[in-house]
Design a protein that fits this description.
Length: 176
């Protein structure tokens, strides 16, 4: 205490440092807590024993299967290749919700494109139809994980603000 009383400048400098560090630490802590909530919801089991992570893995599997069956029914094209790449990225980086980018959206869009091509060709039957329906089911299930999607939206909103954007990992994926 005597250290501060003897020199007001020293006390002022230390007080200023504390004032500057406190909001930075508080922001870092807020981001860490919200990121923990997102990760918890990502791996939390629902009433059927499924997790967002497992459903995302199923989506990658069904996307690859749909692409394989599409190629058997019609020729390989860019939409099919994009679907495969997105599914592979989900398999490789899907263990953490902030590691994924736009792969989910790529799967949704390209699956729709391939579905429309199959319909117009008249080859939307049997196995390819079942694979597409499984893919659509996975997308629908992911959109219904309200607790996860709410936590991811809150995390993304928090990390958009200054100074949280300095401490945040990438944005968490939201299934809409």
């Amino acid at each position: 205490m005597k250290f501060f009383l003897e020199n007001r400048v020293r006390a002022g400098v230390i007080l200023a440092v504390i004032i500057l560090i406190t909001p930075i630490f508080g922001t870092w802590r807020s981001v860490a807590v919200q990121a923990g909530r997102v990760e918890k919801e990502f791996t939390k089991k629902d009433q059927f024993g499924e997790t967002v992570s497992a459903t995302l893995s199923d989506l990658a599997y069904h996307s690859t299967l749909f692409a394989d069956l599409y190629e058997q029914a019609l020729e390989k094209d860019e939409s099919c290749a994009a679907l495969r790449r997105a599914a592979a990225e989900i398999e490789n980086r899907g263990a953490h919700p902030t590691e994924l980018g736009c792969e989910y959206t790529i799967i949704e869009r390209n699956a729709e494109t391939l579905f429309n091509r199959l319909l117009t060709s008249g080859k939307y039957k049997d196995d390819v139809r079942a694979a597409h329906m499984a893919l659509c089911s996975d997308v629908s299930i992911l959109q219904k994980y309200d607790d996860y999607n709410d936590a991811a939206k809150k995390y993304n909103k928090l990390t958009d603000l200054f100074p949280a954007s300095f401490f945040a990992k990438k944005q968490a994926i939201v299934f809409e």
